Amino acid sequence: MPLLQASHIHKSFDGTPVLRDVSFDVDAGAIVCLLGPSGCGKTTLLRVVAGLETPDAGVVTFAGRDLAHAPIHERGFGLMFQDFALFPHKNVWENVIFGLRMQNLPRDQIEEQAHAALELVGLTGFEARDVNELSGGEKQRVALARSLAPRPRLLMLDEPLGSLDRKLREELLHELRRILKRAGLTSIYVTHDQQEAFAIADRVAIMNAGRIEQIGAPQDVYRQPASEWVARFLGLSNLLPGIARADATIETPIGLLRIEASEAANEQVMVLIRPDAARRADGAQPNTVEGTLIEQSFRGGHTRALVRVGEVDLTLEFSASTELPEAGQRIRLALKPNSISILRQPHSMTVRKLNRHGELVWSYPSIVLERGANYVRLEARFNRERLDLGYTVFAPGDRFVEWFFNDRWYNIFEVHAQGDDHLKGWYCNVTKPAMIESDSVSAVDLALDVWIGPDGSIRVLDEDEFAALDLPDAERRAARDALEQLKSRARERRPPFDGSQRIGALNG
């Protein structure tokens, strides 16, 4: 069982969602890195784990204990910030023992743990130094020693190398990983720098717009990105549309390419060619292509080149010893099959809304985000004319994240505005259990719908129409029960639905 588990975390500020159904876990002694662009929710997620922010929904457990009501000082977690936050009027020793003194530990224990922390970071003998006279790297080590001295159960580091120059940051990266591993610390590390994340982490969780797009070992994430967005964020720009064949070949705009293995057959895919895929071709080799070298740039250990094959530009990297032609000349290349992978195109489903007679009212396409044993989560865009409902406006381009269930009497739409993507609220249809097929989902609307605003306000719709329906008693009771569950959750100022693990909780 993982030491730390965060399950279906949601967090909004002033109605704007910052974390959206985030789940991840950390094994004892592991370093997990939260990697993503600025504003993606990394630091907010770290603060939720630390107890500095309360999630709107979701559960954080440590060693099997729910931390919802655990005060910050009882969690035993350490937190290290980018600016180090050292006390300028205290020397190295006084900075390191500050947290230990706050715990009212015996003097001999304080000295033992402080000396051990300084030895771990390589600062033995620095005890009397003025922190204002230290280099940036030495200050970073003092801050780390102060975090290590209390022997935290979990250490969280928020851009700890962000204030250092590139050269010093690279020097300290491997040293920091060595220190954390030697101390046996379970750690969460936040950064926007992929090289930093790959160098220090056992597992990387890539975040985008408040969600985790992919989580895995650094080498696995790099070799097989889960989506086009992840690939581009990692700087992998050689993405081509293709059609995968059953024989592990792919039809692409630059020709037929062979890869090592593929589970896809006769389907559209996105092809990723990693920068290290190419070498100069000599003779008959698989995946040979010919193009024009547009430009090249010497980068020390390698040369980066832009090669145009047909109408496709490929950014490729060659060893510094590889002889390349001048810009504008032709070049023949062989692309290594093990440096080519495929990203499946998002699977789509058709949503079909039916009336109580089973007649189709309207339908629209959605992208499948997640499938479970009894539910499907989809994403769609509002593509009808602008609709002013009084309490909110649905505009063309608004985004819906939808849940449909085959064992629940409702489905739920989380509505986000086009452009700034702020949360408008939840539109909840009371329906019969959905029919979920491989390429479609159908739901029968019972005309008893609920609008829940981001502030917890409730508006029940179509009650008169529902009262006039000729429904069997069991179905009427089930629909009313679903309505009360949704209203109760709204009164508690919680989202009506926040992940598959709490479907049961929604039903009381």
State the helicity in percent bands: 10-25%
Major beta sheet, strand line-up: 21-22-23-26-27-28-30
On the 0 to 100 scale, the average pLDDT is: 86
> What share of the residues does DSSP label as strand, in percent?
35-45%
CA-based shape: flat
Work out the number of β strands.
31
Radius of gyration: 28 Å
Stretches where pLDDT is under 50 for at least 5 consecutive residues are 497-508
Number of helices: 12
Termini distance? 26 Å
Strand-pairing-aware structural class: alpha+beta
Largest sheet: 7 strands, mixed, barrel
Can you tell me about this structure?
The chain has 508 residues and is α+β, with helices and mostly antiparallel strands. Helix content is 23%, strand content 38%. It contains twelve helices and 31 strands. The strands form six sheets. A seven-stranded mixed β-barrel has the order 21-22-23-26-27-28-30. Strands 6-7-8-3-9-10 form a six-stranded mixed beta sheet, sandwiched between helices. Strand 4 and strand 5 (65-66) form a beta hairpin. Helix 3 (92-102) crosses helix 4 and helix 4 crosses helix 5. The chain is flat and about 85 Å long. The relative contact order is 0.09. The model is unreliable at 497-508 (pLDDT under 50).
Write a compact overview of the structure shown.
This protein has 508 residues and is an alpha+beta fold.
